Amino acid sequence: FTHIHPDFSKPNLATRIAHVFVTYEKSTLDSVLVPDYASYSAHFTATARVFHSEEKEVGNMPLAKDFLHPLPAEEKRRHKLKRLVPHPNSYFMDVKCPGCYKITTVFSHAQSVVVCTGCSTILCQPTGGKARLTEGCSFRKKPY
């Protein structure tokens, strides 16, 4: 229902500005029978209070997850730039040759075949991501 205030034709500027087209529900239309500005003002103020109180209740909802203290398993799975502290997935490692026991430094994501300098044994072969170590080679991650 659309309702125009009956005193819209009065020359009072405040009355003309305050009363514009207003949309009501049926129940509200039955209760608003007094055509003065005070009743409209009280109705709109009460309605505004209801909307603001509903927003406050929804806004204070607690988080379901603690973003400041993520689980280590979740952090490891996450993309290298989207972690809490961004760091790469790659590392350097010391690889011990199974034949001559000589230690060679190898990049974890090496893109070429790494050969032992002492006995020419293949230590690791490249794959799409991390390099695959040859069976029998032992390794340890280097500290940063």
Automatic annotation (TrEMBL):
Organism: Culex pipiens
GO terms for biological process, alphabetical: translation
Family indicated by similarity: Belongs to the eukaryotic ribosomal protein eS27 family.
SUPFAM superfamilies for the chain: Zn-binding ribosomal proteins
Required cofactor names: Zn(2+)
Protein name: 40S ribosomal protein S27
PROSITE patterns for this protein: RIBOSOMAL_S27E
GO cellular component: ribonucleoprotein complex; ribosome
GO MF: structural constituent of ribosome; zinc ion binding
Cofactor-binding details, from the entry: Binds 1 zinc ion per subunit.
InterPro entries assigned to the protein according to its UniProt record, in alphabetical order: Ribosomal_eS27, Ribosomal_eS27_Zn-bd_dom_sf, Ribosomal_zn-bd
Keywords, alphabetical: Metal-binding, Ribonucleoprotein, Ribosomal protein, Zinc, Zinc-finger
Highest taxon of the lineage: Eukaryota
Pfam name, any one: Ribosomal_S27e
Keyword Oxidoreductase listed: no
